[in-house]
Amino acid sequence: MAEILRATIPVFTFLINDKVQVYLQRRFSTGYLDGYYESPAGKMDMCEEGKDEFPNDAACREVLEETGVVENLSQSSVCQNDVIDII
Question: Is residue 48 part of a domain?
Fold first, then answer.
């Protein structure tokens, strides 16, 4: 019987407004890197019976859980490997 390998897949989101300002949140009472800033992030949920979460769905869920912002990727730009200079 073949063994099924399960991996933890991280997702990171960057909320950027029209003025190219990036939303960051400050870690508080987590016990890990408290006081540091980060973008909303988490991991994909691996469900049973082959109903794993897709990366876009995981990103929207993490943004909602951590910021309360409802993100609709059909109305957003989804970029991969793009670089934005932040001064």
Answer: yes
Q: How many angstroms separate the CA atoms of 23 and 2, rounded? A: 44
Cα dihedral 59/9/12/37 (nearest 10): 130
The count of domains in the chain is 1
Domain with 48, as residue range(s), is 10-75
Q: Which of 61, 57, 78 is nearest to 70 (CA)?
A: 61
2 within domain boundaries? no
Please state, rounded to an integer, the average pLDDT across all residues of the chain: 78
pTM of the model: 0.68
Confidence of residue 73 (pLDDT cuts 50, 70, 90): low
